[in-house]
Amino acid sequence: MRAVICKELGLPEALVVEDVPSPPCGASGVRIKVAGADVNFPDVLIIQGKYQMKPQPPFVPGAGVAGTVLEVGAKVQHLKPGDAVAAFTNIGGFAEEVVADAALCLPLPPGLDLAEAATFPLVYGTSYHALKQRAQLKPGETLLVLGASGGVGLSAVQLGRKMGARVIAAASSIDKLALAKANGAEALIDYSKQSLKDAVKELTKGAGADVIYDPVGGALGEECLSCIAWNGRYLVIGFASGPIPNLAANRLLLKGASAVGVFWGAFAQREPQANAANFRELFAWYAAGELRPHVSKRYPLAQTAQALRDMMDRKVTGKIVVVP
Fold this sequence. Notes:
Number of strands: 15
Number of helices: 11
Radius of gyration: 19 Å
Distance between the termini: 10 Å
Helix content: 25-40%
Structural class: alpha/beta
Largest sheet: 7 strands, mixed
């Protein structure tokens, strides 16, 4: 099979595409013919050795896929060859075939575009776990979403609206905010031109945001605690800007607020039944057309490095996908 290989840690341009043996399935494994592989910011970090999970080269990057089951291990009961699935793989996804742990494979409703479906689990799984289990978002609350035009940000906008929140989208350009508005945001903040905390306070009449969804980090993350509401929940999603924010614990104290970590991959492994219940709801909404990932571009396997470079250079809106 053809696969993208990270032979040494570094930038996307160092990746190569080669023919390699298909990985063994194993008793609890599921071999998948990949129809689409999701591209996410952690993929950029993993190939540089900057992510919390640090596989040693050589390895195949790519954390999420969708496709058709080719083979199942002896212990796998809920899937069979021919089934359409999405899977969280950690690594291995940028290839024609991948073997995933059966516990992390999700049967897909019939009739979906599998390349598009590949972009669904990680971002919607992350955002729904964040808003449902971690923030316990309630109807009528105010949700502030940073990086609102990116993959996880846009999914949080959609889900926040679906869950009955008032969604404030924050992004770095008018075009990005227009995409967030089209996906359910009620109010918009261009933080390249205005103070995030001042804008949030104005939009909430001084009350602040009940839940803050932050995949950006850095200085913006630090600013968030200046505009969080009483009993607010600040969700730590990621650090796309690079620096990890230094959070002011005194602001958490004064607002009775919480800083809450969100790690969907660990949640899916540690609490598979709760994760499966989340996805039953998510896939029902997806099949009904009530949620839809915004796939802005598809790349062939040979252009995976370009896909990661575009992600790294902040040229991506919504989701992008590698199609072997």
